[in-house]
Amino acid sequence: MVAAESAESIVKAIHDPSWFLRYSWLIALLPAIAAAFTLFIGKRTPGKGSVYGITALAAALVMSLGVLWTFVGGERGFYEASIPWFQIGQLHMEAGVYVDGLTAVMLVVVTSISLCVHIYSLGYMKGDVRYTWFYVVLSLFTSAMLVVVLANNLFMLLVGWEIMGVCSYLLIGHWWEDHVNSSSAIKAFITTRVGDVPFMFGIFVLVFITGFTTSNIPKISEIVSSGGASVGLVSAAALLLFGGTIGKSAQFPLHVWLPDAMAGPTPVSALIHAATMVAAGVYLVGRLFIVFLDADPVVLQIVAIVAGITMLGAALMAFTQDDIKRVLAYSTISQLAYMIAGMSMGPAGRTGAFFHLFTHAFFKALLFLGSGAVIHAVHSNNMSEMGGLRRRLPITFWTFLIGSLALSGVPPLAGFWSKDELLVVAEHEGHPVLFVVLLVTALLTAFYMTRAVLLTFYGDFRGHGEPHEAPRSMTGVLVALASVTVVAGFVGSPQLGAVFGKWVYFQELEEALFVPWVAVLSTLAALGGILIGYAVYRDYQARDPLRSLGGAYTLVSNKFYIDDVYWKGIVRPIRDDVSSGVYWNDRHVIDGVVNGAAAFTKVVASGVNWFDLKVIDGAVNGLANIAGFTGGLLRYIQSGNVQRYAVFLFTGVVVLAVIFTKI
Amino acid sequence: MIRLPLVLFLSAALFSTGVYGVLARRNGVLVLMSIELMLNAVNINLVAFGAALHDLTGQVFALFVITVAAAEVGIGLAIVILIYRNRETINVDEVNLLKW
Amino acid sequence: MTWENSAITIATLLPLAGALVIALVPRQYEKGVRALGIVFTGAALVFAIAITFTFDYGASGLQFQLNTSWIPAIDARYHVGIDGISLPLFVLTFVLSFLCAIYTWRVVPKPGKTKAFIGLTLLLETGMAGTFIAFDLILFFVFWELVLVPMYFLIGIWGSSNREYAAIKFFLYTLLGSVFMLLGFLAMFFNSDIGGGVHTFDIVQLQQYAASGGFSHAFQLIVFAAVGLGFAVKVPMWPFHTWLPDAHTEAPTIGSVLLAGVMLKMGAYGFIRIALPILPYGAQKYAPWIGLLAAIAIVYAALACLAQKDLKRLIAFSSVGHMGFVMLGIATLTSIGINAAIFGMVAHGLITGMLFFCVGSLYDRYHTREIAEIGGGVMQKLPYLGGVFAFVAIASLGLPGLAGFWGEVMALLSSYSPAQSLSTPLFRAFMIAGGVGTILTAGYFLWMLQRVNMGTLPEKWKAEAFGDVAAVEWVSWVPLLVGIVVLGLFPSLLTDVTQAPVNSLLGLFGA
Q1: What average pLDDT is seen over chain A?
Q2: Nearest of C336, C313, C339, C325 to residue C438 by alpha carbon
């Protein structure tokens, strides 16, 4: 491997770690402490507990920026530190951090967006029944996500991964009074867990490679890259790990939970289901990229296929949604697939994917928070009850528009640069099919975002009441995120030296390329999508013009019937039929044997009892009965009639007399 | 002097009448009287044999028997009266408690 | 009489002494009896904690040993001791008993009879604690059976509607297992030889005898089946589990807590302490079957849970599944697996004990355990109780960072690569079954929470004046809740204790 050789020079432990690196574990710990404070004394604090999370995250953001600064300053190595956690068998668990440029970028993304969401929620969740609890879970989630980002070993990563899952569950079901919300929460948890189990097995495989001694990521990477494990094992590990990605990042065929997860409060959707947690699946692939690279090439092809199916399918499904958050949810699925497609294209694609993750986090959070502001104003999620909000919510409109353009890939906004980089890699590394799919998806993305913008902000207002712009805490966040969205792309822009690639790279620095015709093509795709969207939805009144597509529309609006197949084909049969069958078996077959044995014993016992009573005791009683019976016969002689006695007496005397006479 | 066999016939006839009365009559008083008949038949025999054999023992026995018979009839009638008071009948068929 | 040789005996027998004292207290001092229960279980717990402080964690051998003559006529000796395998379970016994005594301060279940209730609980405690320290087969058997009687009465007198059936089923089923176990013990005794044709019931000596190749292979196969059946019923392993849902459903709250928290562990402990070391060949031969039953139990119990309408029955079935993970760990015959099993046992004791407390408290308020009857909205009516319940349920489905996770995930990890003598593909299949089981487990717990905790409160409960978690309940729960978090964050508290003895145990398997 060419990369591995030059890796020696670049991937090395940082010689003299800065203060921020040495205390990077604090970044994950701070939100956890904040969560504990909010939980125990939050209700009694002024502001009902929101202050802890915001303070902790502000501090964590500062520290994350400090960490990133180290790498901006030209550092190229990594920092790893750990303390022993526990030992079981020969397996040594450790608690530690692994910080490199990728970690630093992720730290900044997570802490900044989490901070934004914490602040935004001040307004959005105001007066909520479980306001304090909301902040507890939000902070706990952030902490778990930071653990995932920082973890230097797989088990710690798994711990953070699952805690994120539970927080996601709790927040989706935040308004659990409504059955739909709690069902969505369960769906999200179970669906991701279906992916997490293979992920856990993948960890087992990697731990097995080390001889069950450690789950340390650098050590595993070293063993894998030095060929210390068979290709079969590595491929199995990669595929199993990818299961976790499919679940967490909502890829086909486990994408079904993410749209339903929109039942949660909008800030949650922005943080967890757009910017951070769902990106953890992508992060996982990137963090253990060596496993995917050294696996059989088929593995990356599978990854590419899954990503391709997901990005097109999800983009199509976004067309038919009326719920603005669901449009964004499908868009998220599609964009995550974009990143994963990048991963499947090798080290250069990995950098592109992370760049897209980085930009996407900001503009998608912006879009979600913007949609939150809209929902806050019109008290409905449905775009059919919106419209004409451009003048009523000017700040929301402009920021949302920036987000949409960025997502559509209009230069020079953030999304353009990251999409362009992925397209360039696809072209450059020879993935023509993927290139086309990416391009088509870009067009589709521009189309449905145009639809969303037109339906929400243009035309006449179709809802009720008089919508008002959101409070300062919310709009402030929107403006901040919009500004980031405008500039974030430049960190990866080849014209400006593509500094992003100097922070996030795999083993060796990649040269960022700029291919003019690809850039033109991607811009055309974006503009094309926007124009078509404008043409179709310009005169939107009540009926979606796409409905005229007939059967195709029905198929897509029913989510390709995948949810139905899962629900009717898997979930309900298991939950209702198989389980009842098993329980019936338990009651009647297994317990039947037990009770049957008891009943049999009772039957035998009563048989023995019968024998004892009738046969053995029967003999005894029989003798007595014979005597009684005979006596019964004889008793008739004793009639009580004295005269009859006298007759017998007399007869006897006569008989005796006769006998004696004869003698 | 009456001949002995004739007396014995008389007594035998009396005795038989008594036995018949004891065994066949249903009236308690009649049964008692039949017993008297049988006792008197015995008495006749005793007296007759005493005279024939010139022995006084027979007469003495007869006297005893008369005495005992008197006592017996006294008790017997008392019983019959009591039965009558309790059961309002002196039909001996209905007085069959003496069984089982 | 030194601390070394008498501490565990005193700790074990203190509750028995308490039971005797309570028997002498006049009936009318009701609260006094409850207080005495707390005092005696508390005193025993103090001893147990003192033992943990004077315990030598580095050593793998027996500590606090006392080996003296007991019944010379049958060569039974009073041999007690404690090592890293028994210490966690020993302490768990005292902790749970103490918390149960505190919980009883609030309410004694119908039909009252406080004296008998507390007395039997104390007797139960002695039996359970004794099982974990006995190193003589007869002594072990005596303690083992001693547990049955109080539990029989606890279910039979203080249980709910179908209590007699459940109590008899529990008693007879366990007794059936015990008979085979006793036969196995006798077979071990008569086949042992510690020099000069002398037989022994001593577990340590039997282990040495077995290690020297004393027991033939055929003998081991037969005796392992007999002894294993006895333990399997107690665990309970599928398909010997059907007494458990009935016993749990009918038992009073603290009966369920102790049953799930400690008694089930006696079976798994028996495997680790007696069956594995004395009959290593048998263990290797039967391990795949144990693993198979464990894997079936995990999936089967999870499916059965989905069909439950009664909360307590649901949790009882979940116990079957969790014990499946424990048995899977044991069946791998690896250090990770057996450590995971012990971890799983302690975690299950804390978590499921806590779940039964929650359900008991729900029942105290709602007077029903039917999920449909309760009808949701517990979080609205009783936010704290509902919150605790949700927390424990999530801990039970194996959330990382809480105690339930490590036992399960390590058991699965160990079955990825079991001991050399066992079939790896087979155990990987078990691992996959276990993985499916964790999904289903999440499914039924979350579904239960949705139906019980979430949603809106039905009209019929709105007028009821239910008190949220009472002070006494908090006192008896907080230690468990803290334990769940602490063990999840610092598993080394447990693994450091069990590591050394488990490794020396596995020396017998050449691992």
Answers
A1: 87
A2: C325
- The DSSP output letter for A383 is G
Q: Is the dihedral of CA A269, A260, A574, C257 positive or negative?
A: positive
d(CA A633, CA A617): 24
C173 with A594: Cβ contact below 8 A: yes
Confidence of residue B98 (pLDDT cuts 50, 70, 90): low
Take residue A602 and report the two structure tokens written for it.
């009772």
**Tell me: the pLDDT tens digits for C369-394?**
899 888 888 888 899 999 999 999 99
Q: Which residue type occupies A88?
A: I
Predicted local distance difference test score (pLDDT) of residue C510 = 59
- The Cα diameter of chain B in Å comes to 53
Q: Which chains touch B (3 or more CB pairs under 8 A)?
A: A
Q: What is the DSSP letter of B97?
A: -
Decide if pLDDT at B69 tops 70. yes
Nearest CA in chain B to A633: B100
How far, in Å, CA of B26 to CA of A536, rounded?
Answer: 132
- Closest Cβ–Cβ partner in A197, A208, A579 for C307: A579
**Could you write out the DSSP letters of every residue in C269-285?**
HHIIIIIHHH-HHHHHH
pLDDT at site A2: 35
Contacting residues for A531 by C-beta, under 8 A, at least 6 apart:
none
Peptide bond into A253 cis (omega under 30): yes
Cβ <8 Å between C340 and A88: yes
Give the distance from residue C455's alpha carbon to the nearest chain A alpha carbon, in angstroms. Answer: 4
- A206: which residues sit within 8 A by CB, 6+ positions away? A154, A215, A220, A224, A237, A241, A288, A291
| Tens digit of each residue's pLDDT (9 = 90 or more) over A399-412 | 999 999 999 988 88
Residue identified by tokens 């017997």 is B76
- In three-state secondary structure terms, A493 is coil
A3 has pLDDT over 60: no
- Bond into A412 cis (ω within 30): yes
Out of B22, B92, B100, the one facing A635 most closely (by C-beta) is B100
Q: How far apart are alpha carbons A628 and A18 in whole angstroms? A: 113
C-alpha separations of A15 from A96, A576, A615 in Å: 18, 59, 98
Hey, are the CB atoms on B23 and A646 less than 8 Å from each other? yes
Radius of gyration of chain A (CA): 38
Q: Is the peptide bond before A516 cis (omega within 30 degrees of 0)?
A: no
Q: Is the CB of residue A137 less than 8 Å from the CB of residue A131?
A: no
Interface C:A, ≥3 CB–CB pairs < 8 Å: yes
Alpha-carbon distance of C432 to C423, in angstroms, equals 15
Mutation target to probe the B interface, by most B beta carbons within 10 A, among A635, A636, A638, A641 is A641
Q: CA-nearest residue of chain C to A580?
A: C307
- DSSP H helical segments within A344-413, as ranges? 347-378, 394-408
At how many degrees (to 10) do helices A131-150 and A50-72 cross? Answer: 20
SS3 label, residue A84: strand
Residues of chain C contacting residue A594, judged by C-beta atoms under 8 Å apart: 169, 173, 242-243
Residues 6+ apart with CB under 8 A from A447: A319, A529, A530, A532, A533
Angle at A515 between CA A514 and CA A518, to 5 degrees: 125
Distance from CA of A620 to the nearest CA of B (A): 25
DSSP string, C113-141: -HHHHHHHHHHHHHHHHHHHHB-BHHHHH
Asked if A638 lies within 8 A of B100 by C-beta distance, the reply is yes
> pTM of this prediction?
0.86
Three-state secondary structure call for residue A508 = strand
Which DSSP category does A310 fall into?
H
